[in-house]
Amino acid sequence: MAEASVVDYYATLNLPTHADLMGVENAYARLSSELAELGELDEGATEALRRLNEAYSVLSRPELRREYDRVYLAAERAQEARELEALLRRRSMIQWVIVGALSAVVLSQVGVLLYLARGQF
């Protein structure tokens, strides 16, 4: 399972990452029966059923699920870290823009005061 090609099996089965084996089996049973019915009418349902079977084959076997979770959740945490870093960078830029704008206001006011005070001394 390479990180670049990690498929979200939890989304395929419409499950949270903390779902237990019973939840995996129930979701698979419900979705596979729906897709089997649709398979006669829709060609895309056959591909969806193949993806569903793949997700079930991994998430229903504890040793494969542990390995999948290790890779999938690591990729998810890395993505969250990148998003947090981007958020902090944006926040920092906004803070510097605010500081710059306030500095410009203060400097312009100091300039006006110096200009006005020039004639009084």
Task: Summarize the helices and strands and which ones pair or pack.
Blueprint (H helix, E strand, L loop, with lengths): L8 H4 L8 H19 L3 H17 L2 H57 L3
Helix pairs in contact: 2-3
Describe this structure in words.
It is a single chain. With 121 residues, the chain is an all-alpha fold. 80% of the residues lie in helices and 0% in strands. The protein starts with 8 loop residues before the first helix and ends with a helix. The longest helix has 57 residues, at 62-118. It has a single domain (3-118), classed as DnaJ domain (Helix Hairpins). Helix 2 packs antiparallel against helix 3.
What amount of the residues lies in strands?
Answer: under 5%
Beta-strand segment tally: 0
- CATH class division: Mainly Alpha
* CATH architectural category: Orthogonal Bundle
CATH superfamily: DnaJ domain
The number of helical runs is 4
The main β sheet shows up as: none
CATH-derived topology: Helix Hairpins
Oligomer: single chain
DSSP helix fraction = over 70%
Please state the average pLDDT score.
Answer: 89
Sequence of secondary-structure elements: HHHH
Distance between the termini: 78 Å
Q: How many domains would you count in the coordinates?
A: 1
Q: What's the alpha carbon Rg, rounded to whole Å?
A: 28 Å
